[in-house]
Amino acid sequence: GGDSEVQRTMLELLNQLDGFEATKNIKVIMATNRIDILDPALLRPGRIDRKIEFPAPDEKARADILKIHSRKMNLMRGINMRKIAEAIPGASGAEVKAVCTEAGMFALRERRIH
């Protein structure tokens, strides 16, 4: 089933990571937003040696992301990006972008109804 496929994929990934020669200049970059559920075998020294965290954006950064992704939208006057950013604490950059996309889709649907 699905679990055995996940296990096979993990084993292959571990084998590939273990197979790199130290003398080769090979860098492997991985990304996840769920480090808490990664297999501990993946995190042992020699496999993933350095961890760089990119925390969720703070309120100002969320407001800036909202401004960037709403630049080409026709916004009503008085839209307060800071208030919207305040209403979505802990949201990732992608989630903030999705708020803009969803708001745009909602606005388009509303125009069709009226």
Characterise the protein shown here.
α3 crosses α4 (81-87) and α3 (59-70) crosses α5 (93-113). The chain is mainly α and 114 residues long. The mean pLDDT is 88. It folds into 2 domains: 2-43, no CATH class; 59-113, Orthogonal Bundle (Helicase, Ruva Protein, domain 3), CATH 1.10.8. The chain has helices at residues 2-19, 40-43, 59-70, 81-87, 93-113. It starts with a helix and ends with a helix.
Question: How does the SSE layout of this entry go?
Answer:
Elements: H1 2-19, H2 40-43, H3 59-70, H4 81-87, H5 93-113
Helix pairs in contact: 3-4, 3-5
CATH architecture label name of the largest domain: Orthogonal Bundle
Number of strands: 0
Task: Tell me the major beta sheet.
Answer: none
Radius of gyration: 21 Å
Can you tell me the CATH class of the largest domain? Mainly Alpha
Report helical residue fraction.
40-55%
N/C terminus separation: 49 Å
Mass-distribution shape: elongated
Return the CATH topology of the largest domain. Helicase, Ruva Protein, domain 3
Please write the string of helix (H) and strand (E) elements.
Answer: HHHHH
Strand percentage: under 5%
Number of helices: 5
Structural class: mainly alpha
Assembly level: single chain
Mean pLDDT: 88
List the uncertain runs: none
Count up the domains.
Answer: 2
